[in-house]
Design brief:
Elements lengths: L2 H12 L5 H14 L1 H20 L7 H15 L24 H66 L5 E7 L7 E7 L4 E7 L8 E9 L2 E8 L7 E5 L3 H4 L3 E8 L10 E5 L2
């Protein structure tokens, strides 16, 4: 038997595709080839096992599936009883069980390799996830640190600007006193004409509920103009920066009232601070 034909029979035998005369012919050729035949069968089994591990699952075309199902149904159909005059078929010598090293090491080796690969991939995946989690946490921490540093820089810049307004050589101060309902409250407005900026610092004002806020007004000819809103603090004076001096310079009176948050177009609430005459 030619080598190509024997290889085809090895593949068919391993795929359970041999029967009858072909099975007998393969058994005889395997016996004739001896150890060489066993090695060929081993190599074929190993190759088919590797292909089974690496092959992708594909969905067969609908036409092929229908054809295969039709053949299966045809094979499953009842077979008519043969005529009594029919010659009995010759008995087929079954393939003798033989001690082959194929079953002893090839499949266990393939299964061990597959299990090892699965375990290694799982460990690698877990390591990647852990490393990604650690790096993400480190990145988040770094971002928080950067945000905190930027926030501190902004606060430092604001403090330097406030300091420049308070100590401005050409600056002036407008004082505000508490009303009868808030006699301990007081405020100072530092005005710097060179920068056109003013800074309001208010003291002894109680912290309000979330739905309320303090609002500063400049009143001229009886008409109030809102200069902004601010909140009181427990740990220091309330602060409000003004980027324009025009409303302050032309005002007849400055006042602070308690208004519904986030502020009102005109005063509606209790007055707690007022500038002097």
């Amino acid at each position: 038997m030619a080598a190509d034909r024997f290889q085809e029979l090895c593949e068919a035998f391993l795929l359970s595709g041999l029967e009858g005369e072909e099975l007998s012919a393969f058994q005889e050729e395997l016996d004739r080839r001896g150890r060489e035949g066993e090695l060929a069968l081993e190599r074929t089994m190993e190759a088919l096992g590797l292909l089974a591990l690496t092959a992708r699952q594909e969905t067969p075309p609908p036409a092929l599936r229908e054809r295969l199902m039709a053949e299966i149904r045809a094979d499953a159909a009842p077979v008519s009883t043969p005529s009594p005059r029919a010659e009995p078929s010759k008995p087929v010598t079954p393939l003798r069980p033989r001690e082959s090293p194929v079953a002893s090491w090839v499949w266990p080796s393939l299964m061990a390799a597959a299990v090892a690969a699965t375990v290694l991939l799982g460990v690698w995946n877990l390591n990647l996830r852990s490393e990604l989690t650690d790096r993400t946490a480190a990145l988040d921490a770094a971002r928080q640190e950067v945000a905190a540093v930027e926030n501190l820089r902004g606060e430092l810049a604001a403090l330097r600007q406030d300091l420049g307004t308070i100590v401005a050589p050409a600056g002036s101060i407008i004082t505000m006193a508490g009303t009868d309902t808030r006699p301990d409250a007081r405020a100072r407005i530092y005005v710097d004409p060179e920068t056109g900026r003013a800074l309001v610092l208010a003291f002894e004002l109680p912290v309000l509920a979330a739905e309320s806020i303090y609002q500063l007004w400049a009143i001229r000819d009886g008409q109030p103009v809102s200069l902004g809103t601010f909140a009181a603090r427990d740990d220091g004076p309330a602060r409000l920066a003004l980027d324009s001096l025009d409303p302050v310079a032309g005002a007849d009176l400055l006042a602070v009232t308690i208004e519904p948050a986030p502020g009102q177009p005109a005063p509606t609430g209790e007055m707690v601070l007022v500038s002097g005459d």
